[in-house]
Amino acid sequence: MCNRKPSFRLEIDNFSEKEAYIESPTFVSGGCEWYLFLYPKGDSLCDDHLSLYLSVANTQLLQSGWKRSINYYFIVVNQSHKELYKSSSLGGHLFCAENPSWGQRKFLPLEKFQEKGFLEKDRLIIEVYIDILEAIDGKDLEVSRIKQRLQNIESGFVKNCLEFKSKEISLEKEESDTDASRIKKLEERVNNLELMISDDVNASRIQQQEERIKSLETMMSDLKVGLDTEKAKSCADGFFVVDHNDVLM
Question: Where is the MATH domain (predicted)?
C-alpha cells in the first residue's frame, strides 16, 4: 500500500449495478481543477475492461492557451485500504484545450470483479495520484506573449536608433568635411585679400614717396631760384655771396 496521500479518492457504491458513464466531483490538485470519469463496462471501443480517465475541469472558464503537463497513476483499493490494482505511471501527458482528458481505455479487466474479495460490499474505490510538471494559465501565456512583443519592439527600437545614429554620424562627418572645405576656401580668400591689401599698401606708399620727392624737388628748385636772385642782388650792391659748392670746386 502506498503511504502517499492520494490527490483524490472516488468511491462508488453498488458498483456491480453500474453500466452507464460515471463522473466524479471536481477536485483540486496542484492548483488545478480535475475530475475523473469512467465507463464501468468499457467505452464504445472496449467492452471487456473498465475504462478510466482523468480530465481538466471547467475548461470553458480557462483562458486560451492553458496547459497542464503531469505524471499520474491510478490505484484500486478496498475498504481496508488494501491495494488491489495499480496502473503503470502515466508520465509526461500534456492536457490542453485540444486534449483535456487522458486515461486508459483498458484500465482494469472486468473479470477481476468476479474474483472473490476484490470488491467489499460491492464498493469500488479508486485513487488517483497526480504530480504537476507544468501548469500554464492563459493569462500567463498572454503575459509571456506581451513580454515577447515588448522585447521585439524594444529590439526593433534599439536597431532603428543604432541605424539612425549611424546615419547621423555619417551626416555629421559629411557636414564636417563640408565645413572643413568651406573653411579652407575662406582661408584662401583671406590670404588673397591680404595680398591684395598688401599690394595696395605698397602702391600707396610708393605714390606717397614719389609725391614727397616731387615736393622736395619743387622746394629745392624754388630755393635755388631764390639764391640766384639774392646772389645777383648782392653783386649789384658790391657784395659777394659765397657758395660752398663754388669754394669746393
Answer: 5-130
